Amino acid sequence: MNLSTLNPWILTLTTFLPALGALLIAILPRRDRDIRWFAMAISVITLLLSLHLPFHYGDVPLAGSGSFAYEQNLRWITNPNIHYHIGIDGISLWLVLLTTFLVPFCVLASWKSIRDRVKEFFILLLVLETAMIGVFIALDLFLFYFFWEATLIPMALIIGIFGHQRRVYAAVKFFLYTMIASVFMLAAIIWLYAQSGTFDFTDIQHKIATGAIALPGQTALWLFLGFFVAFAVKVPLFPLHTWLPDAHVEAPTAGSVLLAGVLLKMGTYGLLRFNIGLFPAEAHRNAPWIITLAIIGIVYGALVALVQPNMKKLVAYSSVSHLGFVVLGIYSFTQAGMTGAVYQMLNHGISTGALFLLLGMVYDRRHTYEIKDYGGLATPMPVYATLFLLITLSSIGLPLMNGFVGEFLILSGAFQAKALYGIIAASGVIWSAFYMLWLYQRVFYGTITNPVNTTLHDANLRERCILWPLAALALVMGVFPSFWMNSIDASVASILGAQNGAPSAQALQVTVNTVLK
Amino acid sequence: MPTAADYIRILPEIVLSVWGIIVMFIEPILPEGISRKGLGIFSAFGALVAIAATAYQAQPQFAGFGFGNMLHVDHFSIFFHLVVLLVALATILMSLDYLPFQKIDHGEYYALILLGSVGMCLMSSAVELVLIFIALEISSIASYILAGFRRHAAESAESSMKYFLLGSFATAFFLYGVALLYGATGSTNVFDIAAKLGGAGRIEPLAYVAVALIFTGLGFKVACAPFHIWTPDVYEGAPSPVVAFMSTAPKAAAFAVLIRLVIDTASPHWFWVIWIAAILSMCVGNLGAILQSNVKRMLAYSSIAHAGYLMVAFASASNRELGISAAMFYSAAYAAMNVGAFAVITQMAGSGERFSQIDDYSGLGKRSPMLAAALTFFLLSLIGIPITGGFFAKFYVFSAALRTHLIWLTIIGVANSGMGSYYYLRLIVRMYMYESRNEEPAPKVRFGVAMAIAISLIATLWLGVLPNAVLHYTQGAPTILASH
User: Fold this and answer.
1) Which residues of chain A have pLDDT under 50?
2) Which of A72, A515, B166, B474 is in Cβ range 3.0-4.6 Å of B328 for a Cys bridge?
3) ipTM of predicted complex
């Protein structure tokens, strides 16, 4: 069978298979064991389907409406003119894969820790997967908003029903922050439709670029801000980050993994695709203060992470810091910075996702995230300690690990934009080594102070099945970034090319390639 | 002389009246103590026949004026007929087991719903102010009685009394406005008035007074601020299925009248009135709802807020097609989701409606997962989350507003819609994230309520995922409205 015949429908299949699975689980009888296996099967099949994407990415020449592969454009609603228009470029391709890759691990991680209302949990998880993939593939602004809002409910419910003590507070805070911020994006989207008569991303982009949509006075700025606030809350950019530590600490492991791994990337993806894609001039004009916020986030997140007594909160604040890097890279408007930012989105998804999975495993054993309750774990749990170290190294960006590639590219982009940005942001790398290694020292080394910890059993088979692939991928992504870089690079170049004119972008691409070699 | 076609133009009303009168006749013959469920099923059947009659009436040869210039059958009237009749059907279905459970099993209940629907249907097709007034009275009087139907409960009597006193007052305003409008324009026909007021020339100051009085009267019926004070008290005391009915059907009908009047009679003169009423309703409704601890009161304030969103569509009437079609779509979506929410509340109420506090919903997600899931779906639709009709309706209304450059109204609207999500969410949080306080098992979901929930659920989902057909229909309405 020639697999490329799948091309027109592969994205739709990948997107809606989990939702279909959720529907089937809803009718299945309440037998927790069957439901777990079924959810596992669905998420693995989705992963396998999505693996089709990178291997046939170049099948069709990227022509037509832009640089999107696997495009599908069907009329959904006649008036207003809404289309089911989907497609991916080199950026969304990997974000889709990140999503489909993380979900099976989330299912595995929830195998034992979710005991109550298992059926509801897996329904929510699979619905969430569909919505997350949808966000990355939508090329119609209405469709995008549709999926964007659709992620909100399952996530809020996962936190609120299956989370820890202060779960309700965290869930409501998460919901309200995101909901209130996104209605402004809705207003901006509708305004664009009112002016252009279309929701199609490429059409609107074209119309703004050619001046077919009149943006008098400050209109462009307001529209830019309407999108920006929705994405900035999701990223989260300092000072809109306060929902994040609460949500992460209270969420169950799978919730934290998807929150950090995928939902935050929806924010940075939006900044890249829509804020810069639609309003390049405004993005350039506003870059200084956005970069300032990003750099404050990098340093502030790292410093706050340093003093956290709670491991999960520490990792949550480290996300604020890491995502600051991503925003910095995007708004540096350099080929290196943007490519690095996209790569760092994937890295953060893998390393922070893996960190939350690791933390979930000790939580299952001890039911605490307090650092002071641990210490000396390396003795009873050697395999676990090794894997934790690998992931820690990936998170702090040690050379040969994936984090290094991303951070290096972002920093070199930042230096190209303005040396000062690079200098301050680089300090964040040092801080991250500080807080992560200190965490590692306090948890794994030293003598065991609490006798309960001597009896902890090491990572079991299920847990190893979760951790080894993630650790291996972190290493592979550090050693062979070119497999990912080629498609990312081209798409970033086309985004930048639309801004600066093609030649300069090509020139920059040369820099990236030399940097990488 | 009225022709046969004239009678077909009021066929749904005839069907409903006949059915209502038959129910009224059978009720006293039935001995005391015998279940009235049969009468309910008979009435539900009547609503179905009326729906069929509306479908028959929708054929092109029956479009146009009936009985002289008294009423006008068009896309618009048929659309609102269907909304009212489906709401009536769902209400009757959810009442089948509610009434005996509350020990108020009397047949006239069903008759009142059918006869009230006559008024509401007529409101959407009438184009003569006097006929509109009569229709309004028919619909209101039925609602007053229904509100007090839990006759041994003091709060139900209070609800009915308040509704009646304030309602008659509002109707008087309306009537006074009609009289003045006749004085100002020399006609009581909506189209004539539209022609007189809609022209470029100066309009008489008297007409402004008349318009203000009419707006006061109708503003009361649709519960938009500042005429909303009655809503929470009345909704709290009235039986839950009745609230489902009167928060949607008479409202849709009153909005139909407003659409005919506002949009076709000189909308520019109304603009600021509508603009202010819209903003006031959204803010008062959402802020008020946050403070409530009773589910019915909360949904009463939410209905004020939703009247505000609907008013946004009216404010965009400078683009006639879009404004009308958005208002129609919103009415239908609101009817679907609100009836659904109240169907679940009806099921949950317990004898004497004891369980109407938000606390009483704690742990419902565990006690009865299906009910909780259904209520969650309706609440998400009220918030305006994708795949629900509420989302698309809100989206459509705000897109109409932006098309007509009402930027501030839109911004205040979307901000309100974000704010409003809090109180709906609170109920969802209660259902899923709190432990149940009340160990009493929820009463078994009977066929009637299940059907009512299913109808609302399908309607809400359909309007959210495949709104194309309904949108197309509403978009056809304005052109037909104009071609008189």
Assistant:
1) 63-65, 501-511, 517
2) B474
3) 0.81
